[in-house]
Amino acid sequence: MEKTMKVAVMNGIGQMGFTEKAIPQPADNEVLVKLEYVGICGSDMHYYETGRIGDYIVRPPFVLGHEPGGTVVEVGKNVKHLKAGDRVALEPGKTCGHCEFCREGKYNLCPDVVFFATPPVDGVFQEYVAHEADLCFKLPNNVDTMEGALIEPLAVGFHAANQGGAHAGQTAVVFGAGCIGLVSMMALKAEGVSTVYVVDIIQKRLDKALELGATGVINSKEMDVLKEVERLTEGRGADLVIETAGMEVTTRQAIQVTKKGATIVLVGYSKSGEMTLPLSLALDKELTFKTVFRYRHIYPMAIDAVASGKVNLKGIVTNVFDFGDIQNAMDSSVQDKANIVKSVVQF
């Protein structure tokens, strides 16, 4: 095997470049994975555009990317469940395993998590990565490594659906038809919610939602969302809303379109971090609010949903860029959001 690997680095806001690094050696409980696909996430684009998300500040040179899929090429001596040649999806967050949240099984809330592409931890826009074997999930024969890379955002969608208690017989509304909105819609459908409407202002994304199984769509640039949901639900309102846009206007609409006793799951981060909401209406309706931070115990469920055909994960991909074209990949993903729903980098 070659001794070094190519690594894409963010050298500054809007600036990508390449460097060479030594290929890592897997520890006893790790595997070395040759990466084949890495998705470009909204957080990657935000770091690329602004250099920070809240208190997480990029210190260049920094490696982006946390949605990886690839093939195992070497295993540590203590690894028994994987072997060279296995195709895997990598869960990007390594937790401490000892804090109260880890002990309770809520490991996504671990304060000491080491998560790809969350400063100061580098991501995986690189040719190889050594990763804890227990966080590498073997893919079935009918699931390829592009789908493996997209298990990460799909896990967010399933966690959102689970947080909302999704089940058959419900009517759900998803605000936002970006990647997370689409995977949330597909997760709801996979969990038995037969009626799911999707709201966005970009028609191309709404067309994609219909293609992937949405019951119907609402272009809020052209239609009154409140009146349309009232019409579609015959005045009853929605049982469940998943908000992925992170906008005050859509969060207010989420409260307004729900029926009494409904659940709202907040997934999208607002740019300001603060909103003014009609809480008196939420109290009158006795709404339940749930929030989402990444996911927990979801990868096996998500992989099974793809393998069984319940989720068309490749359907969200609109653009595939070569690793050598990473500058254009990032620029296009940031600047052409009207046409690009999900970009994937191919190695």
Quick structural summary:
Helix content is about 30%, strand content about 30%. It is an alpha/beta fold and about 350 residues long.
Summarize this structure as a short list of keywords or feature phrases:
347 residues; alpha/beta; Quinone Oxidoreductase, Chain A, domain 1; Rossmann fold; seven-stranded mixed β-sheet; six-stranded parallel β-sheet; 10 helices; 19 strands; globular
Describe the protein.
- The protein has 347 residues and is α/β, with parallel strands linked by helices.
- The protein has two domains: 4-138 and 317-346, Alpha-Beta Complex (Quinone Oxidoreductase, Chain A, domain 1), CATH 3.90.180.10; 157-291, Rossmann fold.
- The chain has ten helices and 19 strands.
- The mean pLDDT is 97.
The gyration radius over C-alpha positions equals 20 Å
What's the overall average pLDDT, rounded? 97
Briefly note the structural class of the backbone. alpha/beta
* CATH-level-4 superfamily name of the largest domain: Medium-chain alcohol dehydrogenases, catalytic domain
Order of helices and strands: EEEHEEEEEHEEEHEHEHEHEHEHEHEHE
Number of strands: 19
> What is the CATH architecture term of the largest domain?
Alpha-Beta Complex
Number of domains: 2
Major β-sheet annotation: 7 strands, mixed
Shape from CA axes? globular
Low-confidence stretches: none
Separate helix tally:
10
- Per DSSP, what share of the residues sits in E-state strands of 2 or more residues? 25-35%
CATH class of the largest domain: Alpha Beta
The span between the termini is: 16 Å
CATH topology of the largest domain: Quinone Oxidoreductase, Chain A, domain 1
Helical fraction equals: 25-40%
